[in-house]
Design a protein that fits this description.
Length: 447
């Protein structure tokens, strides 16, 4: 008998006994899962027992090679039916429109779940997953990896020390980096039918959403451009950009969403460029009412008042370069700006000389475990996750309210208590999302 089994502890080769190991069922094996699954299994405390994918020839080679003994399935429902006793936790790394059904099925069976951002494709789906989290008491984590990072701990520390305080405005932006943000590549109608790859189960790829004729603009990656399947740039990068501010400034849900610009607007793909703002009411002491301004696409560069520029030795001023993704937090005193990048990057102050005033307080120290490994350890009863669905779900709902504004191209008034738009029936219907296709209805019943 191998020593790691006989002694019940990790041996010299890194083998971990079954009692200290999480068995994973992975829904989504290619694409982004090429990084997520190795991160979940990196220290030997998790192993893959089953893979599920609708197309194992779409970038899945790395994971298949690493776990050759894992059983393969096309349908996660079949995987959980047949392998449920051998699966402790499920990772969901698929297009946005199929996050919910895979996560809900796993949770209802008592499985812990790790789901890539944004958590869901509709506002109501996030509500249902947050309800399921409470009912089934399973470990959850949304894959906004920066939430478990040195930058996250630093931001939390800066808030607790009052360095980040009284934020009244947040400017957030993302430069264009997806095909629908290129004017030469845009379309305003659904693409025509193509022959699907033999390796692809197109019916399962569509899952609960409307089944359009296959086109390679949907699979394996470009689906994010379409309202039908994705959440655009706001849903993609918004979770990495406004995450810290939303959580540690306790923004909650907004009361107003204002549409400023939706360039080349149509209801098939997301705008060429978007400008919108959200108003969050006062939440308590040092947490005044705050306006969040979002801008993606061309013309994304934020305006920075000259008083926040750096001063060179010769007295000339240099405008800071905040990069292609991030946010600027304005406090009511206007004495400095807090600059956040994206993911786990640490915060800076503008003008940068201001950081000298706070010295050691500005330094970022990393957590003991990363985002994926904190999930695995929590599954074994060791610690907690930093972005459970109770955290990631509400952040996703904020993003999805912005997506509704992008889709309708109009101003919206929202009631955070009732979670309904005021006087706008068509917007409220979008909150619930489209009716699921036949065969998928069971996942959408109240928990």
């Amino acid at each position: 008998m191998p020593s790691y089994l006989a002694l019940g502890r990790t041996d010299a080769e890194g083998n971990v006994p079954p009692s200290q190991r999480v068995n994973l069922g992975c829904v989504g094996v290619g694409g982004r899962a090429g990084a997520v699954i190795p991160a979940l299994t990196s220290n030997g405390h998790a192993q893959v027992t089953a893979f599920c994918d609708v197309d194992f020839k779409a970038g899945a080679e790395r994971n298949l090679k690493r776990f050759p003994k894992a059983k393969k399935f096309a349908d996660f429902r079949t995987m959980l039916d047949e392998m449920g006793d051998d699966i402790d936790a499920v990772s969901v790394v698929t297009p946005d429109h199929t996050h919910f059904t895979a996560a809900m099925d796993a949770m209802c069976r008592g499985k812990h779940v790790y789901v890539e951002k944004p958590l869901t494709h509709s506002f109501r789906e996030s509500d249902l997953l947050m309800q399921a989290e409470k009912k089934f008491k399973v470990i959850t984590q949304m894959g906004n990896q920066g939430h478990t990072s040195a930058g996250a701990l630093q931001f939390q520390h800066l808030v607790s020390k009052g360095i980040i305080h009284d934020i009244v405005k947040i400017d957030a932006w993302k430069s264009p980096s997806l095909w629908f943000m290129d004017a030469k590549k845009r379309i305003n109608q659904y693409p025509g039918e193509m022959k699907a790859p033999d390796s692809l189960n197109w019916d399962l790829w569509c899952g609960p959403a409307k089944m359009m004729p296959y086109n390679r603009k949907y699979h394996p990656f470009d689906w994010r451009a379409f309202y039908l399947y994705g959440n655009g740039m706001l849903g993609d990068w918004g979770a990495h950009i406004i995450d810290f501010a939303h959580h540690w400034l306790k923004l909650g849900l907004p009361t107003h969403i204002k549409c400023h610009q939706m360039q080349d607007h149509n209801k098939v793909i997301f705008p060429l460029a978007s400008k919108l703002s959200m108003h969050f009411p006062k939440r308590g002491d040092k947490l005044p009412a705050c306006d969040l301004n979002w801008h993606d696409g061309i013309g994304w560069e934020p305006e920075i008042d000259e008083k926040y520029w750096d001063v060179n030795k010769d007295g000339s001023k240099k405008k800071p370069n905040p990069g292609g993704a991030g946010s600027l937090l304005h406090n009511k005193d206007g004495d400095y700006l807090v600059k956040r990048g994206s993911h786990g990057s640490p915060s800076q102050l503008y003008p940068r000389i201001k950081m000298r005033d706070f010295g050691e307080e500005m330094k970022a120290k990393g957590p003991k475990l990363g985002h994926e490994q904190s999930f695995i350890q929590a599954c074994m009863g060791k610690g907690e996750t930093s972005s459970p669905f109770s955290v990631g779900g509400e952040l996703t709902q904020v993003l999805l309210l912005g997506v509704i504004c992008q889709f309708l191209n109009e101003d919206l008034e929202f009631d955070p208590k009732t979670k309904q738009f005021k006087g706008n029936d068509k917007a409220n219907k979008i909150l619930a999302g489209p009716a699921p296709r036949k065969g998928w209805e069971t996942f959408y019943k109240p928990v």
